[in-house]
Amino acid sequence: MLFMQFVIGDDRYLLEAKDIIEIVPYANLKRIPKAPPYVAGLLNYRGDTVPVIDICYLMGDKLCELKLSSRIALVNYKNDTGESTCIGLLIEHLTETVRFNEDDFSDSGVNLNDNSYLGKVIIDNDCIVQLVDIRKVIPEEAYGILFK
Amino acid sequence: MTEHTKPTLPDDCWHSIGVWSKGVPRCPRLDEVTHCQNCDVFHTASLKAYERALPEDYRLEWTKVLAGNKEEVVSDARSVIVFRIGDEWVAIATGLCKEISRMMKIHRLPHNRSQILKGVVNNGGEIRICFSLGNLLGIAKASQVFGDGIHAAYARMIVMDVAGRRYVFPVSEIRGLYHYREADRGPLPNTVSASSASYMKGVIKWDGLNIGCLDETLLTSQLERSIR
Questions:
Q1: Which domain holds residue B29?
Q2: Rounded to an integer, what distance in angstroms lies between the CA atom of residue A43 and that of residue B58?
Q3: Which positions ≥6 away from B171 have C-beta within 8 Å?
Q4: Is the pLDDT of residue B3 over 80?
Q5: I want to staple A4 with a disulfide (CB 3.0 to 4.6 A). Which of A15, A93, B115, B205 is the partner?
Q6: Does residue B87 share a domain with residue B59?
């Protein structure tokens, strides 16, 4: 399976590539006043307004830096009713694709809560790499703000 | 795209001992990876190039690109193999070409007076009919020298498959694969000789060359008649 890899702090994480529509550079976003800090803003994507979520802030507690390696992954997000919307995930060090066998993943053994976005882990080059569930990475309260 | 300042990298071993170095010593890793592009040192260094501040003009350029419509993928693209016979550039549908090989020895057939049928060749243990596309199209020998010291022009043979029947013909040089859109194929100019015009579908332009597109159905029916 193909994954998109990113780095937070010193750790590597993976997104499933099948959910990703396109990876684009950190373009100008329209800020939303009073929105929570993890809402980076709105992107004009091919004439549609797409909300962009700062994954660095959600996972690493700091805003995503303005670097060439900081990119926006446009993903197909399916809500509970099966409706598909496009959202942008702003991520630092989003530069590499990697291939892993699905069967080689194992449970991490740490489960913070039932709804944690952190998924299974795999060992690659002596490093532990963890899968991130796109569907769960956005906090519940964000749905109220973004997808009404 | 916008020009960027070159990243400063502390150890560019690919310039000092790698494939882009001018002399010795040579990196021992090259024996294993063949080219620096396959080496993880080069790969890790290339990722560092992304760890630079985002240039403002680059950001603005991409904001505009993303706001616009996505470029549509060409769906009516046709793939052709472009080659040269004498002075003329000719193209044939890629799907018909089964093989491009070095020049094979042509065994002449006794009592054959045809200018078009050249003989038979041994193509991987199979006997194939070899014909002269140049003579069929009425193309004369090249009047100028093609190829220079860097890019020599090598004569090749094309093995063509039309409805299960295979034919071989020699060409002066293979130029490469090219994709064009049906709409970009222009009509034949009036100056083209009648004999070759009858086998052409039209003319495409590529890299400053005017290339005649062969019509394979007309070509094979004429070919079958002339070699019978």
A1: 13-67
A2: 16
A3: B83, B84, B85, B90, B133, B155, B156, B157, B158
A4: no
A5: A15
A6: no
**Hey, which residues 42-61 in chain B have their CB within 8 Å of chain A?**
47, 49-54, 58-60
Contact B59 A27 (CB under 8 A): yes
Range of the domain at A14: 2-146
**Closest by Cβ to B59, choosing from A25, A43, A47:** A25
Nearest to A24 among B50, B60, B66 (CB): B66
CB-neighbour burial class of residue A63 (10 A; exposed 0-12, middle 13-18, buried 19+): middle
Contact status, residue A89 vs residue A104, Cβ threshold 8 Å: no
Q: Are A37 and A46 in contact (CB under 8 A)?
A: no
Q: Report the Cα A34 to chain-centroid distance in Å.
A: 22
Distance in angstroms (rounded) separating the CA atoms of residues A86 and B132: 58
Number of domains in chain A: 1
The nearest alpha carbon in chain B to A69 belongs to: B50
| pLDDT, tens digit (0-9, with 9 covering 90-100), for A17-51 | 988 999 999 999 999 898 889 999 999 999 889 99
- Distance CA(A54)–CA(A39), nearest Å, equals 6
- pLDDT, tens digit, 9 for 90 and up, residues B192-204: 666 666 788 889 9
Q: Which residue's structure tokens are 């019509």?
A: B215
Query: Cβ(A90)–Cβ(A40) under 8 Å?
Result: yes
Select from A27, A67, A96 the Cβ nearest to the Cβ of B53: A67
- Whether A25 sits inside 8 A of B68 (CB atoms) is no
- B51·A67 Cβ contact <8 A: yes
For all residues of chain B together, what is the average pLDDT? 84
**What ipTM describes this predicted complex?**
0.84
Count of structural domains within chain B? 2
Q: Do B66 and A68 touch (CB under 8 A)?
A: no
